[in-house]
Write a structure and sequence with these properties.
single chain; 162 residues; mainly alpha; globular
Length: 162
């Protein structure tokens, strides 16, 4: 996809995508992040889009990204309690406590320093991707890539160690 095609898609569909994200997340900053991530994926060539169904495709991408954000919020809140206090959290069962402790250990010992810093700033300090990019001195796309790679590594680790 060329930059001019992406620009046309952005100008045509951004407002509807943003409205959908805000209606699902109730947070304008997170909504902007979600919409920007969809366009970043298009720019990186991570997704292909047909011009005859662009609106539906883009809105579906936003909806799915919002669902992922919502799913991760509950785990993030539990992880923040564990990580910030250093104590075992009051969670629903021993398996949850063990999983959260293992997650904290994995992040501290297996993520590269920049990825760990970006992950911590985004999910523990609840900064937007743009705020993280500004603080670290990298582009927003770089933040997105580090977060994606970190989540892939974490998911792979936990999938293999169940």
């Amino acid at each position: 996809m060329t930059k001019s095609e992406l620009e046309i898609l952005f100008k045509t569909h951004y407002a509807a995508m943003f409205r959908l994200a805000v209606s699902l997340l109730y947070d304008a900053d997170e909504a902007r992040d979600v919409v920007s991530d969809v366009f970043a994926s298009l720019l990186d060539g991570g997704m292909a889009i047909r011009s005859d169904n662009a609106r539906g495709f883009l809105l579906t991408c936003v909806r799915n990204s919002c669902i992922n954000v919502i799913r991760h919020k509950h785990m993030r809140e539990r992880f923040i309690r564990l990580y910030s206090t250093g104590d075992e959290p009051q969670v629903s069962g021993p398996d949850d406590s063990m999983m959260l402790a293992e997650l904290r250990n994995y992040i501290n010992n297996h993520l590269p320093p920049l990825s760990r810093r970006i992950f911590t700033m985004r999910y523990l300090q609840d900064m937007t991707c743009q705020q993280v990019a500004d603080a670290v001195g990298v582009s927003r796309v770089t933040v997105h890539h580090h977060l994606s790679q970190s989540m892939e590594k974490i998911n792979a680790y936990f999938s293999n160690n169940k």
